[in-house]
């Protein structure tokens, strides 16, 4: 782990920084104090061999909170385990300067409650991390979810009991919980990728990771700061760090395509107008390809002349939307020649913003097509490099050799700094799952099974690991969609499935090997028709040494994916094997 500043670093995760009551208007007030820890192994007794819980949910972010709410509606015994000291998931942990969502606030929010839509008011077009966290606290309090959330409890092992069709789940507190079903709501971006740079532990200054930012904040005023990494976290943090630092050195291995967010406050009139059309908007979101609402393109980028194409791209650029350019033409992610037109458009924008031609060229991506790595939404990212105290180091020309006690040594010398910020990203999609010792049928671990890449059916269950559901995991639309819309789709399918099984005395559901094979082939086939698999990105696991290169997401669209999942359920859970056991009594379900 990174070595924190010595003053009180060891206590950082044991301190709450939030006080005061929640309120519906986002504002700038802090989130409420954390929930009192609960202990499911002590709270729920195991009687007559029956499991202590019907469902154990791992993770208390957007996924886990909604999953708990839906399970409660069925009257099931459900509890959430959360490793952090408070709810919020990725929005609890990622507190770096500039952290905010890259999907518009009104879209990046729950749709299940019309009342919630009417009472919550977003203050900005793109919500900041604190505002999103306040929203999740409001949801937790409004639906009284905290009483079934156990904080500061990390799942370390889960082993399936084949005779009783239950999971034995062990935590880092030493407790063991028996549950019929487990839902992994651990998120796509929760397994932090620590820097694998020699000497990282020797730095005498302060070393930080964007995904583990101190709750009390970090004052870099008057300091020399290094940022290693220019993914989305780095792109958001760099402009704000540059505002206070005496000097900022950015170490870039691969440049990124960044689009202007054009963020602004949301007026009262806009809020009222949006509330009036929320029902229509939410319905359109659910039917959409990616969880956001727009008119899909109908033409190729190559069938229009350059003047028309440039005008279209200008409109997309000025939209302030992450998908503003990708939604312009049908073939930007399928045809290299078409993609080059939009890639060069963005590079021309970089050249127009960055005054030094050499720096502009270093910041211009040349090795991968636009959109095949997740683009970034930025506020003054490129313009930051025009400041005299900001320096860009091209690691393809002068790679990092080591971290020293004084700073960062590259092949051309040492860069002394006071603070190093590692913006090195995540072991995305699969990292949080294989980090747990999950043991399925026959003693096989999930890590062993996924050694050559993740395998599951519909992105929901992996064969040989019954009753273990995943929310927005690998081989589902997840990171290629609005996460909250995908989360709701997953949670609702899982809840309906558990309700169906429980009403019918079914105690085990497992993906069949054949269905799993067909789904993996289908996902790979769809991806092969795009430019995605050819690019080394976290979409393919290429950012983690030794991780198998597999495209990790479903590219067919959320609308098509939803139809696939619904059809499987309608057909009696086609592709899944269902069975029962006398040791598992029928669960009582009160909801529909």
UniProtKB/TrEMBL annotation:
Cofactor(s) recorded in Swiss-Prot or TrEMBL: FAD
Assigned protein family: Belongs to the FAD-binding monooxygenase family.
A GO molecular-function descriptor: oxidoreductase activity, acting on paired donors, with incorporation or reduction of molecular oxygen, NAD(P)H as one donor, and incorporation of one atom of oxygen
Biased composition (Basic and acidic residues): 1-10
Bias type Basic residues, positions: 11-20
UniProt keyword terms in alphabetical order: FAD, Flavoprotein, Monooxygenase, NADP, Oxidoreductase
Chain spans, region Disordered: 1-47
Stretches with biased composition (Low complexity): 21-34
Name the UniProt record assigns to this protein: Cyclohexanone monooxygenase
Database matches in InterPro entries: FAD-binding_Monooxygenases, FAD/NAD-bd_sf
